[in-house]
Amino acid sequence: MPQPNAVKCLVVDDEPRLRRVLVRLLEGEGFTCSEAGSGTEALEMMHHDAVPLVISDLRMPQMDGVTLLREILARWPDTAVLVVTAVAEVESAVACLQLGALDYVAKPFHLDEVRARVMQALDKRRLILENRMYHQQLEERVQEQAHRIEELSLERLQALVHFLEEKDPYTRGHSVRVANYSLGIARMMPLDRDKIDTIVLGAELHDIGKIGVSETVLHKAGKLSEAEYRHIMEHPVIGARILGPLMRDAPAALAIVRSHHERLDGKGFPDGLVGDAIPLEVRVVTVADSFDAMTSVRPYRPALSVQKAMQELEEMKGVQFDPQAVEAFLAAFPRAALPVPTPEARPLHLPARSVEAPQT
């Protein structure tokens, strides 16, 4: 009677008498055995019930043992295959080992040898599977560790963004507000959770490239020269260069950092992208960034009123701003519900899904 946890084995041989000898031996060792009279029959049985161990003769009609071995290893690579061969065919058996068979037994059978070879083959199979599992788990652990290192690095960069903004009364809280506005737009459109998380992350880090911009130019009270303006507008490229190694798995967030000053009409920076060539995530953040910039005091100009800033968004729909993103912003933040930008806006932290938008 088969044992509850018995290993299944398929014996393949066109000679019924030899099959029965092997089956009796293996069943005596606690295996659960099935039989096939040809390679074709064996593949059909494996298709319905794959087994961890196959013992197959080499010389069979319809499909020889070598062809059967190739088919089994191609379809069920975790199966241990032993080939049965006559003493004069040892070279064929060695060729099967090179193809992937785990061992061979020679006819006429010595039952103790068959028993030992079967156990050795199953031990090899176990070690192969354990080794593969170890490497898979090791790779997963390495990937998890790398992801955690990237997360920690991004968290530190977020902290750096907030620190830099705290030093500047004109930009204090800007990235947090842009992230919150972007969150409200994305929810109103609506976008799925992954896109929302990407948008919030990119929005919070979008101005990190300003670390490479001269503070004298950033804080200049008068009108910027053409050269100074172009210097400031290098910050998207600088930011993308800083974050590139850390955001390989978040290309859309990196695109926000690089492209948040692009315009639908192609007159933006740094790449002059036009229309749908600007990713949707970028178009969302561009609206949020522009609104916060317009309603914030800058060294070179006073803040616009909320009403005037909303009017600017409306007027530039389809020219500078994505119409859908503008409509979503206006729906998410009615004028009466929009707070005047303040430096006390709550910082965001990964994961982005913990962030709440200002209530409408």
Please give a structural write-up.
- With 360 residues, the protein is of the alpha/beta class.
- It folds into two domains: 8-136, 3-Layer(aba) Sandwich (Rossmann fold); 168-354, Hypothetical protein af1432, CATH 1.10.3210.10.
- Helix content is 53%, strand content 8%.
- Strands 2-1-3-4-5 form a five-stranded parallel beta sheet, with helices on both faces.
- The termini are far apart.
What descriptors fit this protein?
Rossmann fold; Hypothetical protein af1432; 360 residues; 5-stranded parallel sheet; alpha/beta
Contiguous low-pLDDT stretches (5 residues minimum) are 340-360
Mind telling me which CATH architecture of the largest domain this is? Orthogonal Bundle
Q: Report the sheet with the most strands, covering strand number, pairing sense and barrel closure.
A: 5 strands, parallel
List the helices and strands in order: EHEHEHEHEHHHHHHHHHH
Q: What gap, in angstroms, lies between the N and C termini?
A: 72 Å
CATH superfamily of the largest domain: Hypothetical protein af1432
Strand elements, count: 5
> What is the average of the pLDDT values?
82
Gyration radius over CA: 34 Å
Concise account of the structure shown:
The protein has helices at residues 16-28, 39-48, 65-75, 90-99, 111-166, 174-188, 193-205, 215-218, 226-232, 235-243, 251-259, 280-294, 306-315, 323-332, and strands spanning 8-12, 32-36, 53-57, 80-86, 103-107. The chain has 360 residues and is α/β, with parallel strands linked by helices.
